[in-house]
């Protein structure tokens, strides 16, 4: 298979499945891992896909959620470093905090175990179970639970949120656009994120740097409404950050 044909096949596969791993692309094209990784670098430079740890994701499918089990396995080290930084620097004893259903907010839970008299509200089923397993006082919002992301959404959850106030909210995002909008595929989840930010004294968006420059269907916050916490940024990622963004880098 010629390079151009192989890269077209890779791009088509990624756009069809939204996200995939390197080993899938090796089987698809009967190519080595090193060849696939070079192809992904080239496709990312051309703005066709975005590389993530162990694979790549599409930039074309703005309205489609990636299944939770897949999301848990992507960029795990960066997510943990971001989560650890967020807890150490922005959570104190006695806080009432909101954690949304993102996989990076999920990674905060083991570090939250060390915080005394902490109260967590979440719309994430997985987050709630992890908090309970770690002995953390937890309230799970009621409503409809999504199959793909295990996030609770809907009017019931929104009404409950609007009656609560938080010391700080921690929110996950699927993308940050050039004009400073944090985005996610589902408008229903965007509504929950937006409400949680409104009800908090301070809000942080937890997002690894692979999502900088990506756009999804629904916007939920502008950069003037929350502070971004991300992993150590490359020069390339720094150059495409929106102007006036407030950003904290989680460094080891």
From TrEMBL:
Residues 3-58 form the HTH deoR-type domain. GO terms for molecular function: DNA binding; DNA-binding transcription factor activity. This is Transcriptional regulator, DeoR family. InterPro entries: Carb_Metab_HTH_regulators, DeoR-like_C, DeoR_HTH, NagB/RpiA_transferase-like, Tscrpt_reg_HTH_DeoR_CS, WH-like_DNA-bd_sf, WH_DNA-bd_sf. The lineage of its organism: Bacteria, Bacillati, Bacillota, Bacilli, Lactobacillales. Coiled coil: none annotated. SMART domains: DeoRC, HTH_DEOR. Keywords: DNA-binding, Transcription, Transcription regulation. It comes from the Bacteria. Gene3D superfamilies: 3.40.50.1360, Winged helix-like DNA-binding domain superfamily/Winged helix DNA-binding domain.
